[in-house]
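Q: Please design a sequence for this.
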């Protein structure tokens, strides 16, 4: 997955890097670093593919994991 595809997928699911960072328990800078790295570990592609569509989530679960 290219950096552009990663960004587009996050956006299409309604996620900002800040919200992903909160959900995943890491910094926004780290999300950005991984998103922009075309040689990122494959688990990051799996993470963004597997994150639910934020627009359909209950407000209490959209930021942090329960």
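A: Design:
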């Amino acid at each position: 997955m290219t950096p552009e595809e990663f960004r587009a997928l996050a956006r299409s699911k309604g996620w900002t890097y800040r919200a992903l960072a909160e959900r995943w328990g890491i910094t926004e800078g780290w999300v950005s670093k991984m998103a922009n790295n075309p040689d990122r570990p494959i688990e990051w592609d799996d993470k963004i593919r597997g994150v639910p569509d934020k627009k359909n989530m209950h407000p209490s679960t959209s930021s942090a994991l329960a």
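Q: Thanks. Anything notable?
A: The mean pLDDT is 91. Residues 3-12 form the longest helix (10 residues).
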